Amino acid sequence: MNDWDDIRYFLAVAREGSVRAAAERLEVNHSTVLRHIAQLEDRLGTQMFEKLPSGYRLTDAGEEVLEFAEQMAASSNQLQTRVFGRDQGVRGRLRLTMAPTVASHLLMPDFVAFAGLYPDVEMEILSSYEPVNLTNREADVAIRVVVDRNTLPQNLHGLKGPEISSGVYMSRKLLASWRADADVPIRWIVKNRYGDLDKFHQSNIPASEIPFRTTDAAAQIVAVQQGLGMTSLPCFVGDTDPLLTRVPGSGLERHGTLWLLTHGETRKTKRVRLFTEFLSRRLSAYAPLLAGLVPNN
Hints:
By secondary structure, this protein is an alpha/beta fold. The chain is built from ten helices and eleven strands. The chain has helices at 4-16, 19-26, 30-44, 60-85, 100-117, 172-180, 217-225, 235-238, 270-285, 287-290, and strands spanning 49-52, 55-58, 92-98, 121-127, 141-146, 156-171, 189-190, 212-213, 230-234, 244-246, 253-263. The strands form three sheets. Strands 3, 4, 5, 6, 9, 10 and 11 form a seven-stranded mixed sheet that branches. A two-stranded antiparallel ribbon has the order 1-2. The protein has a two-stranded parallel ribbon with strand order 7-8. α1 (4-16) packs across α2. The termini are far apart.
């Protein structure tokens, strides 16, 4: 158990349940993962995994090793975090995670401005709706829309940002067409499989019983821009798009609160501290836009 690199690959397979998923997570090829697992099994003289059609399952020996491997991983992460926290140079990598729409429709100009102020900071944007483990240093700062603050992990440090509202939007051309023929129902563009069609009961425009569904926010936005129907969007997306307008008679709904999240010693690092302070000021200036108080029509 003295080769941490082999243990790291073992943990990835144990957590992901397959060599392919572990390789993607570690950003290496399939054979590299298999080689490290084989080295660990050879050194310990026992098989760590049982290969099944559904994936890799830990053997009894693997289950025993897993407990110690998790402890090693926790110690390694703690060591990295403490060392990282003592790095006070305004240089190095800064990993940020957030929803794709927040990155592309709201904060990209601010990332450009921060990069101009601190050119030696290497910024990496992880655009994803999936949760990222700050404790394991998968990212340095998480920018998250939070509906219930009680769901925030207790071990994270949070800076509360502005409230975010959402509205119902359609393309300006589609609205003009509807006004020319108000008897034609408009499709409800749903970003997930179980979207709420009843939202349109609050508007002056009747919704078709045949929705258009997508799991991708970018496709949802393009669909409404192209006049496919009407949809619910954060106000910072809908109100800044010149092709879109709010649906007549529709109101606003609370979308959540924007939070800046960091972990432990990481937040003491100078580049992390400078970034969170910088972005907190920018978010305060965005408060009216995020709340839906500056509509584009």
